[in-house]
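We close this part of the discussion by returning to an individual protein. The amino acid sequence and the backbone structure tokens for this protein are reproduced below:
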Amino acid sequence: MLRFLLDTNALIRRVAEPRKLSREQTRILDDLEAHNQAFAISAITLYELGVLPTLGVRRIKGGVEPIFRVVNNNPLCQILPITVEIAREIAAIGDALRDPADRAIVATARVHNLKLLTSDQRIADSGLVPVVE
């Protein structure tokens, strides 16, 4: 049973910069791994990872390829597609969040009833979804 969704930053940090995760996020992810329990990411996270290198927004230690390998090869990582139900939820969120990818991630967490691991203060402050900061 899925309980947690990682936003793009949490996934990047887990793979490339684990010290940047909060203690609670690290504890949750370590516990999931120890108990062979899955976590999820939104399909939009793959898009964000794919375009990051072209945007020059942020350098990821080791690049995105190690993150793609983890997502592709880790049976505990489940990729949740953008469905019609999630698209409807994105529309319902409206402009409560400016970033369309954040809207998709939050909508995915809401539709699947998952807690979101994030360090994005705008998402946490929105109150749209339960978060683990």
Remarks:
- The longest strand covers residues 39-42.
